[in-house]
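Handoff note, outgoing to incoming analyst
You'll be picking up this chain. Sequence as last confirmed:
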Amino acid sequence: MQAQAIETKREPVPLNGVDTPTLFATINAVKSQPELAKFQFRASSRWLAGTHSRSRAEAFSGAGGIHRHEGNFQFDADHPRVLTGGDAGPTPVEFLLHGLAACLTAGIANVAAARGVTLHEVESTVEGDIDLRGILGIAKDVRNGYQGIRVSFRIKGDAPDEKLREIVEQSRARSAVFDVLTNGTGVEIAVNEA
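Most recent structure output, in case you need it:
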C-alpha cells in the first residue's frame, strides 16, 4: 500500500503585525460585494508662508461608510534652503518617494503574512532623479517631475531568497502608488473663489 500525501490547509493567523484572518475576510467580503472596494481618500492643504504648506489626511469613504483616522495626521512640506525654502519639512517630491516606499512595504508585509512567511526585517531605499530646469521653466524639453525612480529592498525572513523576491514582486504588482506612478492618473484642478 502506497502512502498518500495529505495536503493540509494552513489556518491564517496574525503574522508580521498583519491581522491575516481579517485580511482574508476582507478579500472574501469584497469578492461577494464588489461595491465595498470603492474608496475615496482625501487630503486638505493650507499655505503657511513661502514654499511651506501643511496638509492633513481627512475622513475617507469606503466599505459602505465614511471613516476617520484614529489620529490627526498632519504633514508639513517645504523646500530646502538651497531651493529658497525654509526647510520646515520634506519636499513634495520626497513625499512621493515616501508614499511609494510605504505602499510597497505595506504590501510586502501583507503578502508575506498571507503566504505564511515571517519577516525579520524589511528596509528600502528609494531614489528619484529630477532636473530642476523643467520646474524653473528654463528648458521646455525637460519634464517637471522625476526622470527616473529606483527602489532597492533589503528583506530578511524565514523563506528562501527566491520566495522573498516573489513577495516583493507581488507587492509591486498590487501597489496602488506604483500603479499611479507608472500608469498615470488623470488629475483635475479647480479654482474656487475664496
